[in-house]
Design goal:
This protein is of the alpha/beta class. It is built from 7 helices and 9 strands. The longest helix has 19 residues, at 98-116. The protein is globular. The two termini are 30 Å apart.
Length: 217
C-alpha cells in the first residue's frame, strides 16, 4: 500500500468512545509520542535528543520489551516523560479473542506499574487497530485511549526524511498529536527525522507538552 507521509489519521476513529485524536489548547502546543520501545540503543538516543531540546514526550511501550529493559523504562520516567501502554505484543487486536486481549492489557498495565512504582492509564493499540470486543471493558478499567493526529512515517526505510518534516510544518495545527517510533524498523530514518523535527518546530515557535486528561478530546 502506497501511503503519503505525513499521514493524517482518520477522523472516523472519533466514533470510538473516549478516544483522543487531538487535545484542547489555546496555545501553539503539540504532543510528541513514541511507539514500540523501549529498545537499546534507540530509546537511549531518543532521551538524549529530547533532553537537548528540553522536550517532554509520551512513550507507548510494549510490555515484552519493557520487561527486558527495566532500567531504561525507569530512566524514561525519571527524565520526566510519560509511560503509556502499547500492549504486550505488537499484533493486531481488532477481532482477537476478547478475554485473552483484555487479560493481556491488564497484565501489561500491572507489570509496567510494578516496574515503575506508579500508576499509568493511557494506551494505544498496535497499528492503532482498536480491540473492539473489549473496548468498553478497558475503559471501565480506567484506561484512556490516545491515538494520533499525524503519523510521520519514520518507520518507512526509503522515506524522504527531510521532505516529510517540511510538509508537516505546513499542515500541523495546535493540539495535534505526532507519532514517531523509537522501536521502529527504520532507525536511520528515525534518527534523521527527530532532531530535524524538533529543530524546525521549536524555531517556528511550537512547544511540546504532555496534556492533562482534561485536555483530551
Amino acid at each position: 500500500m502506497n501511503l503519503h507521509y505525513p499521514l493524517r489519521f482518520s477522523r472516523w476513529y472519533k466514533l470510538l468512545p473516549s478516544l483522543s485524536l487531538t487535545f484542547t489548547t489555546t496555545k501553539k502546543e503539540l504532543w510528541l509520542t513514541f511507539d514500540d520501545g523501549p529498545v537499546s540503543p534507540e530509546t537511549n538516543w531518543t532521551l538524549e535528543t529530547l533532553a537537548k531540546f528540553n522536550v517532554p514526550a509520551t512513550f507507548f511501550v510494549l510490555t515484552e520489551r519493557a520487561i527486558g529493559e527495566r532500567k531504561l523504562l525507569r530512566e524514561i520516567s525519571a527524565q520526566g516523560h510519560e509511560i503509556a501502554l502499547h500492549s504486550w505484543h505488537h499484533r493486531r487486536q481488532l477481532f482477537a479473542n476478547h478475554h485473552q486481549i483484555f487479560s493481556e492489557w491488564i497484565d501489561s498495565r500491572n507489570r509496567i506499574e510494578n516496574i515503575l512504582g506508579k500508576k499509568i492509564n493511557r494506551f494505544r493499540p498496535p497499528y492503532a487497530v482498536p480491540p473492539l470486543l473489549c473496548w468498553s471493558k478497558l475503559l471501565n478499567e480506567g484506561l484512556k485511549p490516545v491515538y494520533l493526529t499525524w503519523m510521520v512515517g519514520d518507520y518507512v526505510p526509503d522515506l524522504d526524511a527531510t521532505g516529510v518534516v517540511k510538509q508537516l510544518r505546513k499542515k500541523v495545527e495546535q493540539g495535534n498529536i505526532l507519532l514517531l517510533h523509537d522501536g521502529g524498523p527504520a532507525p536511520h530514518i528515525f534518527r534523521t527525522i527527530l532532531p530535524d523535527l524538533l529543530t524546525q518546530f521549536t524555531n517556528d515557535g511550537w512547544q511540546f507538552i504532555i496534556p492533562t486528561d482534561q485536555q483530551l478530546l
